Amino acid sequence: MSRPIRTIAAAAAVLLFATATACNSASTGAPDNDGAGKGGSGSVRGVSAGSIKVGGIVSMTTASGYSKKDTDLGAKARYDRANAEGGVNGRKIDYLGAEDDGQDPAKNLAAARKLVQREKVFAVAPMSSVTFSGADFLEQQKVPTFGWGTLPSFCGPKHIYGFNGCLVPMPGGTLNQTWPEGLGKVLGGTKGKSVALLANDNDAGKFGIRTFTQGFRAAGYKVSYAKAVVPATSVPSDWSAYTKEIMRSDGGKAPDVVISVMQTPYNIGLFTTLKRGGFTGVLSDPTDYDPGLLTKDATRQALDGVHVLVQFEPFESDSAGMRKFKEDIRKAAGGKEVPLNMHMVTGYMSADLFLSIAQKAGKDLTVETFQRAAGSFSDTGTLVGDRSEPKGQRESFGCGALVRLKDGKYEVSSPFKCYPPIPFG
Known about the structure:
alpha/beta; Rossmann fold; seven-stranded mixed beta sheet; five-stranded parallel beta sheet
């Protein structure tokens, strides 16, 4: 629904940071000595007569200085409202806050261990990081875990849920068409329109190029350029080698659309160079929906006119759900107006999905009753569209919108909508 996530969207592709990281964690995910789902006395771990203990794992700090700390604020806002309304079936949420994994695989696993073995949480919600090496451990311990489903670990395990579904296309699964269809509305149609896609030279970038190429072609676009060639370890100082290729990729002329599936620092350099080179078509990425980016003139100018993919209802919406979200964030921030960003939505909607399933599980809350409730869960009209489990553990809920930065403000360029997915393969 990525980051930076803006590394969320950066859509599914950008956040697919080394699939092997999560898969290889099984060797270090030793079972909890108390037994999966149990506390030291044999009771349900994290559940008392009056409370449910929940923790989070978030990349609050990173080597690049990028932070997802507002994910924690979003979760707190939703839990605060739940508690103000009486809790879940009479139990208040005891939210411990989020552990900082520093975007480090070892710290991610350590955080998961701490929350389960020391803090005895019932659930982890939210989990927001480009590395999820604690996934196998949490699954082994049967810990309901909720976050942005942009990593393979959110797609398939029984106890791990993406707040807007599984965003990683899996063999035999489906592909979310929000991006190509939304841009089609901006362009007045997709037929005959050419698109260039650029990504980092890593596993995530290569996977992104593969999936988005299929999606845009299926929507009727001509994909004139699709490469994962930009170094992932450092932002290039000279983008001309990439932009020259892109500018003549459509039979010697520029494509109609240039799409970056990279993080903000990369997008600033790429888009600035394209504009200076005379590109007048549509620019798009899945990461740069953050009012904090507008505080610097150079950044604001570089991103002006860019259409950003968001996989939730935009902040510019005046729906009842968005008004409630804003009110809850304001209260959690001590009554202050704070700039909204997608990390807040990650925390808020991760908490919201957990709360909704826990409510359905009833007063007798155990991992088993929670899982049974999740197995037939559905609701409609949320900030991420219509939700359904276990569908969401296999595919995206298929909803999203595009927003464009114009004259220093964001505006909706393609309204929030749910699109039929296509088979992935």
